[in-house]
């Protein structure tokens, strides 16, 4: 796949997607959005892609939406065109997607990382929602996903002051799953993605779906939803294979059936 703002490489069954706008700290302009949506739509239908790692450069995962592109936007156009709504497609991606974050993940960059299933960060990573300094607020989930990830106190602190959080604070707060040395970050994310890619796709997909459902409904409904998916997996060949492999002390060979 050839893109202007993305570099896509296959690493086994994992698609590695790098945001590549070095001149603008990987700011997320409309081309990045369109290209990422196009890439994810292609991955969704490609059986060779079993997981995705989304990353940036060592300086910036993404320093936010492109301020230079946004500056002249008028309210009526933003409203009528549902400006930035397309980014929701990333959150709706059904295969596993890991954000591998080094350097700045600010504004839309932090929001994009939070749309992924989990974040593996380099110790250099810095997260923040500096929109308030520009006279706006987060527009793609910052006020909502951040509260769920790190709670009201820190979400308010970040969104109201515009300050940045380093990787250690982000890990302590629960935004980040793992923090590793910068030179190990990509390997760590690719290894995690390869591991997930080796499991049965229906169980991976259902685990993701059930966890995401926790944000949408009360506990009793979430537990019922989880249990129904759990029951459903007993209809798969992979459940029989996974359990037989455990009992026979061998590795499971999953067929996604
Ligand atoms: N947009 C456009 N250009 C940018 C952006 C950006 N967000 N960030 C950096 N750049 C550009 C700079 O303008 C500069 O370009 P030039 O060389 O032409 O002047 C180049 O990248 C390098 O940047 P700096 O010289 O500023 O580099 P520093 O190392 O001094 O600073 C920072 C790095 C701290 C990251 C700094 O660039 C910065 O503060 N950037 C802006 C961060 C920001 O405010 N982000 C929030 C944007 S608003 C937003 O994201 C709304 C979200 C809505 C939803 C979006 C969905 C994805």
UniProtKB/TrEMBL annotation:
The keyword Transcription does not apply. One of its GO terms (biological process) is fatty acid beta-oxidation. PROSITE patterns: ENOYL_COA_HYDRATASE. It comes from the Bacteria. It catalyses: a 4-saturated-(3S)-3-hydroxyacyl-CoA = a (3E)-enoyl-CoA + H2O; a (3S)-3-hydroxyacyl-CoA = a (2E)-enoyl-CoA + H2O. The keyword Phosphoprotein does not apply. Signal peptide: none annotated. It is an enzyme of class 4 (lyase). Its EC number is 4.2.1.17. Keywords: Fatty acid metabolism, Lipid metabolism, Lyase. One of its GO terms (molecular function) is 3-hydroxyacyl-CoA dehydratase activity. Belongs to the enoyl-CoA hydratase/isomerase family. NCBIfam families: PRK05862.1. Could possibly oxidize fatty acids using specific components. This is enoyl-CoA hydratase.
